[in-house]
Specification:
Serine Threonine Protein Phosphatase 5, Tetratricopeptide repeat; binds zinc ion; 16 helices; 325 residues; mainly alpha
């Protein structure tokens, strides 16, 4: 059946087929059938051939990137997706896939720029793909950054149109919220503060709240910090900056901002709660964690090991009365 050339293009660019990948349509339909039949090797060869004829074909680039990803070839997948974004920097599937591949290769901290761009540019256009990215981030941050994990789960639930997926994210959220090994302030619900008098909130405040809602936590935190620098006695800006940094898996900066929020809070209970949160986040920093160190201790008897450690290395003894479990 002939396609309507004014339908959105198959590559997911959001353009009309006629002005996008139309010239390679017969090749695309053939490769699509190969992909449907899981003939990945043949499909890869055909995609290579297509890209020799039409170097900028978006459909071929995104599908070769997906295929490379499936085959575990991260660098090749990234090269394709970066080639696609050089032609079309807002390609929704492209920006999501780039963030996903960078996350897989470099971890969250080094890929947060790509992740934010993905949520900002494509979060509302390819919702299920964006939700799946949010869920992947949440599961990676689950152990070390429960606040960030929780927020990304909520973002996934908000983005997903598929109810089964929504339920999956919800169940993970319930498990996190009932996990006694995580201090409650780090796993309980938390929302940004909005100004009580709606008279004339600064434009930047509205932008920051919007950025945080779509998952751009680092950018939102930056704006809240800027507002806080301008009005250092306003706890709302410090608190919001703190939450956004925590959701961005940046406990050090989160704790700094929350200390400031507690310091200028007008309500005593708020001050206590925010200070507690700041201290709990500080405890999660690397330097407070107990790691494992392997050392060879030259001694001829096992009973001497402890005294050798004391004498030679001066290691402190742990206060076991305060260690749980
Ligand atoms: Zn296209």
């Amino acid at each position: 059946m002939a396609r309507d050339v004014y339908e959105p293009c198959l590559c997911g660019s959001g353009r009309k087929l006629k002005f996008c990948c139309y010239r390679a349509l017969s090749d695309i339909e053939r490769i699509d059938r190969l992909l449907d039949n899981n003939q990945n090797r043949l499909a890869l060869q055909a995609l290579d051939d297509l890209l020799k004829k039409h170097a900028n074909n978006r459909w071929a680039l995104i599908h070769r990137a997906f295929l490379h990803q499936e085959l575990g070839q991260l660098e090749e997948a990234l090269a394709d997706v970066e080639r696609l974004l050089a032609i079309d920097e807002t390609h929704p599937l492209g920006v999501i896939l780039q963030a996903r591949l960078r996350l897989e290769r470099d971890g969250y901290a080094k890929s947060r720029g790509a992740i934010q761009r993905a949520f900002q540019r494509a979060g509302r256009k390819v919702r299920d793909e964006a939700a799946s990215l949010a869920l992947e981030i949440a599961s990676r941050l689950r152990m070390d950054h429960p606040m960030a994990c929780r927020r990304y789960l909520m973002l996934a639930m908000d983005l997903w149109e598929d109810e089964d997926y929504q339920l999956e994210a919800f169940l993970i959220l319930v498990r996190l919220e009932t996990d006694d090994s995580v201090p409650y302030p780090l796993r309980g619900p938390r929302e940004l503060l909005s100004p009580s008098d709606e008279s004339d909130p600064p434009e930047e405040l509205r932008t920051a709240l919007k950025l945080a809602r779509v998952g751009c936590f680092d950018a939102a935190a930056g704006l809240f910090r800027k507002l806080a620098d301008q009005s250092p006695e306003n706890p709302l800006y410090w608190y919001n900056a703190g939450l956004c940094h925590a959701w961005d898996a940046n406990p050090r900066r989160a704790a700094e901002a929350l200390h400031r929020a507690a310091g200028c809070a007008s309500d005593f209970e708020d001050a206590v709660e925010w200070e507690t949160l700041a201290q709990l986040l500080e405890l999660s920093l690397d330097e407070h964690k107990t790691g494992y160190v392997f050392r060879c201790v030259p001694t001829d008897s096992a009973s001497r090991v402890i005294s050798v450690l004391d004498e030679q290395l001066g290691w402190p003894r742990a206060d076991l009365e305060n260690v749980k479990g």
